[in-house]
């Protein structure tokens, strides 16, 4: 049994429980999703076979005196992305592709680097060892240039082979943090307790490898920013709202944080809420947790949690709470463009309340950070705003 | 003795003192035969013979003795003077040099005539230069050579014979001429055939070796002219003891860079360097891509201005790497030599090859105008001025001094050549007249070095700008090439790592079979070679010639269609058409005088392309390139920079 500090009375969670029941009912109706669902992990031999197949194609082209090229689904165009409410953003079945040619000066380096990383993956899988993206970058940092190059190529390979990154034996160093009512065993047998006072646990690198997850949490709160997360820890939010779990991806979430949120949802089916700034960037981060990103749309089944709800900070809350105008920030041109872009995304049509909130923001031309609530009181967020929202169902 | 009103092939002569008898308004606008006999000796003299009209036998191409000669040589008034010919001494101008001067004179005249009607238009026409040599009856081991300059069309309308004679005599000090002319009425009434309205003939006894050198000098001169006058064609033939060697110098339909003022630089690379040994038969880019420097006005020192240079001299440099790096994209391009070409007003060469040239003194110091250290190059003057090549001979040549000794010398022969063109033009505020233009040319030939030295700073700046831009492309190309090679190396090594590391026999077998390799070592070698072969011509996106297809405007497409049509007609013309564009060699041996290495099948009549070497298929690209460089030239060259 997990350590359970004293939280609110049971009646506090009535609305949350109802929400959970509703989510479970929806889940049953859709019938497709099971705990731990998503794409099946490929076996080592499958991965090796796939890589050998790619190499064979290259050699066959060369033998035919044709310049080899890799064909990869184009993940930079919304035209190739389809939206499904229950899954999020996915690759369309017949999407356009792009070619990484070996005879073009523009793409020859990328062609070579794909082969380079394929050969590294091949060895990792053969030897049943794992490496982080950072490890791969440091094998030849001069060749790769920067980490982003490696990250993008790994995503391309994952998309090309249609295998999740973990199947390629590539991990990433997690930047996310987790705290609250949760225990689990890591792949190597390490027992992890996230229940603690003012410190958090790093999101593990191998999410697929963790097992024996145990929690009594009534909900999972995703916090956009580390600063807010730390403030909530300092305010003992997890204890006060116990039992609950808090996660932060420290901004745009990395794959592991998203995998963890997905795993927690798949395992426990507890309500998941997002606490983000009332600005276009915060909304986009929330959308990545909920619906996924275009770049990783090929792995949407492992990453998206459509059950996520927007808890705060809602643009409508700004007016409702009479937050002074001078604590608000005018939308920049980039903000406006981002907001327009989000409003055009396919998932916004099935989220009329989200649209309404975004329109309020667009009309006011103002944005607010979560810290704007400190104007009301330094612990207003943890003591008043969030408890009230959770108790009375203030999410959308 | 009265002169006949019309006769065929008769010859008379006039001594220099009788030149005053030539009517001032004597014009060569009508068909006639104009003959200069020159035999060089201690007291050089020459005949100038005039024959009206053309002998019909001339049309056949065989040179017949003039039937009227005996009748006329008896004239007391116009006593023909034949000189006992001797080969000229080393310090004096050769026949080749004299020929060049006369050709220069004719082109300047032509240019001035054309300027009156269409300013800035390219000169268009054809000159025939033929040399015929037979064993001399007077001297053993000597050839009696007759050189004829002729034109088709009305190129030399308005050429005043007396003036020409006077000027050409002052120009060529060892040259005197005898001239015969018919009555004014006759000269205007002989337009019967209208086929060859103009001919000029030299006769001289020469040693075979001198004949060979002269021929090469003239050929190079003609080649140099057509490099900036693409619409002029020279038919040059040499017949020695019945063995005919014919060559056509013309660059019509070749891509050019329009330099305004009636000249356009031909940008087909094969005129400047030999085809790279390692380049495949199908070259990806047959052009050079000249970068124009800004035009600068040259200050003329007082002492030179006092000699008659009353106007402005404008220098426009252009630099290009040759061949285009795309010719061998997978080779690491390096510069191995520099060729400098000097052109004066009207696009005429400023210096004469084979002599000590005052014009190029300033270029003896390789770093005088160009900071080679900036490009990590060390240049030394090159003495390799081999005339006997199909390439246009530079006025100045440098080669990269090797710091690694013998090894790189071998490499250098495969490197790129940096071409630097220096175009010097003259403006006086008024339409430049022929004498003035001639004077400018003469002064520039002797004083260009002094003028360039006087303007060291501006000339250096202008050249450096052009060089920087030309070499920037080179550096980019080298960088791209290195990137390509490094990437392919990574790709091959990665594949090798997977294949050699695989535990799947099937996979390894399939891979080895695909490349027909017996083991992984051979597989690796073949894989590397195959990758290299496949991708060898597929890089260098910077190369401007690659993007032309996308820029095709409709009007250019039409122009191109026309060009293609023209080429098709030429091709359909068959043998007769080919003769125009090819070198024709006949006879058992090409010639004893031309003992240089030529084709082995000299006993057969063979045709070898010369002059217009651009392939018809390249026209589309060419017209686009022409248009682009023309625009570039206008943009870069709005006017002289003070």
Largest sheet of chain A: 6 strands, mixed
Outline the low-pLDDT stretches of chain B: 1-91, 176-196, 403-413, 546-642
Could you report the average pLDDT of chain A, rounded to the nearest whole number? Answer: 87
Average the pLDDT over all residues of chain B and give the rounded result: 64
SSE order and pairing:
The complex is a heterodimer of chains A (396) and B (642).
Chain A: H1 14-30, H2 44-63, E1 69-73, E2 81-84, E3 88-91, E4 97-101, H3 108-126, E5 131-132, H4 133-139, H5 141-144, H6 147-161, E6 170-171, E7 177-180, E8 183-185, E9 191-193, E10 201-202, E11 211-214, E12 220-223, H7 226-234, H8 237-240, E13 245-248, H9 255-268, E14 272-275, H10 280-291, H11 300-303, E15 309-312, H12 315-320, E16 329-330, H13 333-343, H14 352-364, E17 366-367, H15 380-392
Parallel strand pairs in A: 5-6, 12-13, 12-14, 14-15
Antiparallel strand pairs in A: 1-4, 2-3, 7-10, 7-13, 8-9, 8-11, 16-17
Chain B: E1 33-39, E2 45-51, H1 56-59, H2 69-73, H3 95-117, E3 125-135, E4 143-152, H4 161-171, H5 184-187, E5 198-206, H6 208-226, E6 232-240, E7 243-249, E8 256-258, E9 264-266, E10 291-292, E11 296-298, H7 302-305, E12 312-322, E13 335-343, E14 379-381, E15 396-400, H8 406-412, E16 416-427, H9 434-454, H10 456-501, H11 505-514, H12 520-535, H13 554-572, H14 574-581, E17 582-585, E18 606-609, H15 619-636
Helix pairs in contact in B: 3-6, 10-12, 13-15
